[in-house]
Amino acid sequence: MGQDVSGMDRQTLTALVSQRAASVSVTLVVEGTSTTVPLSQVARIDTRATVEAAVSGSGSPMTLLRGILRKREVTVRYTIDKDARAALVSRLSGTLRDHVVEPTVTWNDGSGGFTASSGRAGDAIDPADLDSALDVAARELAKNHTAPVSIRRAEPTVSAQEASSVAQSATALLDAELQV
Fold this sequence. Notes:
The chain is of the alpha+beta class.
């Protein structure tokens, strides 16, 4: 966070961390286009753990002495919502001209079953850049963190063979005998 919190009680510090966490956004720049998202959509700041780390041992004489002699930094505790992160990666990658296309399984009226269409390789954002931007935003809890996100060539995450197998299995379920 980069803020001096010496002298703050637990309640004041909790309010500060909560307020700062609620106001953080991340601006990701992909091929010159900026996308801003609230950090809270992708990460959860653990206010209680962060405050606990900051105040633990704060009443002991040794901690007070160390505080006079050197600066003590506490890392903000947070977790990333994996589903929200994956959705953001997909959203950002989908804005690229030649983005990855995943295979699909759809209903085919003509055949009376499911069919699979193959995907294709394409451009995708580099998830490591996104992770780095989220890490900086969460640790600093600054109002807005802006970061460039690079592009890399990628294959679909699902193979054409896997999509075809799902389509065949789904079609086979249609022929299954059901009894109640």
